[in-house]
C-alpha cells in the first residue's frame, strides 16, 4: 500500500466525506493498522489484497478479543478505502464486495429475580406521602412494564380505578390499555385518595405523580428514587427503571404469557425487540441446569 495512495485516500475522506471527527479518526486509525498488518505479512501492494486476506485480518482482530462492533467498523473502513481505489482505477475489483460484518453481540438485559423484586418493592414506607408515592410508582412500574417516560407522563385521566386499567399513548393509533395488578391498584387508590392531595397546590394539575412542590415528577427525580432504594439492597446488580421493565417481561413469559401479548403490553413495534427476553430465559435455564449438575457431580 504505497504511502502516496494512502495519503490521497486520507485527504479524500477528510475533504469529501461527511464524517464526524470521531469517525474520521477511527477510519484513519483502522486503515493504518490494516496497512501494518499487510506489511507484517509481506504484502506491500494493496492491489494484491483479496477477500481471503481481509477475512484473515478480521479473524485476527477477533482472536485479539475485539468486539464485533469494532470489527464491523474495521470492515467499513477497509471497504471505504477499496471503493476509493476502485473509483480511481487503482484496482479492477473491490475485494470487500459481498463481505458481511460479524453479527453484533446480543446483550441480555439485567433481570431481577422475583425475590429481588419483592425486596426492592418493600423498601418504601407506607406511612407518609413520599413512601406511598414511591411504593405506588414501583408497584405500577413492575405490574405494567411501562417505560419511565410513560409513568411520569401519566395523568389522572389515564387511570380507570373502577376497571383497574390505565391507558397509555399520545393518539388512538399508539394507544394501549394495560390492566393494573391488584397490589398496584390498591396502592394507587390509596395514593390518589389520601396522599396526592397533601402536596397538590394547583387544582388544575392533572399529573398523577407529583413532587413536593406539587409539580409533575421529573425523569431525573424518578431515577434518583430508584437509585436511593436500590442502594439499600445487597444486590450485585445495577437497578434502573428499565430493570423493572425487563424483569416484568421475563416474569410474564416465565408464567406462560405468549410473546405476542408481551410485545403488545410493552408497546414494542417490532417483535424482534421483545424476543431478547426469550433469550434471557433460555440463558437463565442453561445456568440453572449447569449449577444443578455441577452440584450433583460434587456430591
Oligomer: single chain
Helical amount among residues, as a percent range?
55-70%
At the fourth level of CATH, the homologous superfamily of the largest domain is: Intergrase catalytic core
Give the CATH architecture of the largest domain.
Answer: Orthogonal Bundle
Order of helix and strand elements from N to C terminus: HHHHHHHEEEHHHHHH
Please write the CATH class name of the largest domain: Mainly Alpha
Let me know the average pLDDT. Answer: 86
Write the layout of secondary structure elements.
Blueprint: H1 3-15, H2 21-40, H3 51-63, H4 68-87, H5 114-121, H6 129-144, H7 148-152, E1 159-160, E2 165-168, E3 176-179, H8 182-199, H9 219-231, H10 241-254, H11 259-266, H12 271-274, H13 276-297
Antiparallel strand pairs: 1-2, 2-3
Helix pairs in contact: 2-4, 3-4, 6-8, 6-10, 10-13
Task: Write up what this structure looks like.
- The chain is mainly alpha-helical and 299 residues long.
- The chain folds into two domains: 3-87, Tyrosine recombinase, N-terminal domain (DNA polymerase, domain 1, Orthogonal Bundle), CATH 1.10.150.130; 114-293, Orthogonal Bundle (hpI Integrase, Chain A).
- 58% of the residues lie in helices and 3% in strands.
- It has 13 helices and three strands, in the order H-H-H-H-H-H-H-E-E-E-H-H-H-H-H-H.
- The protein has helices at residues 3-15, 21-40, 51-63, 68-87, 114-121, 129-144, 148-152, 182-199, 219-231, 241-254, 259-266, 271-274, 276-297; strands at 159-160, 165-168, 176-179.
- It has a three-stranded antiparallel sheet with strand order 1-2-3, with no helix packed on it.
- A hairpin with a 7-residue loop joins strand 2 (165-168) and strand 3.
